Amino acid sequence: MHHSATAEAILLRLAQTGDSSAFDELVQRKQGAIRGLLCRLCGDSSRADDYAQQAFLQAWINLPSLKTDAAFSGWLRSIAVRIWLDSMRRKEPLASGTEAIDEDHQSLRYTESPDIASDIDRGLAHLAPAERLCIVLFYQDRLTHAEISEATDLPLGTVKSHIGRGTQKLREVLSDYA
Amino acid sequence: MTVDDNPNYADRAQSAADRDTVGDESEVRDPLLLSLFDAAANGAEQEKESDVLAFVGRVSESINRRAARRRSRNKLIGFILVASLAVIAATPGLFNAALTVLLVPTGPLIEVETLGVVGSAEILLVLFDGLFAPINSAAGLLGVIAFFMRRTLFRLILRR
Question: ipTM of the assembly?
Answer without folding.
Answer: 0.76
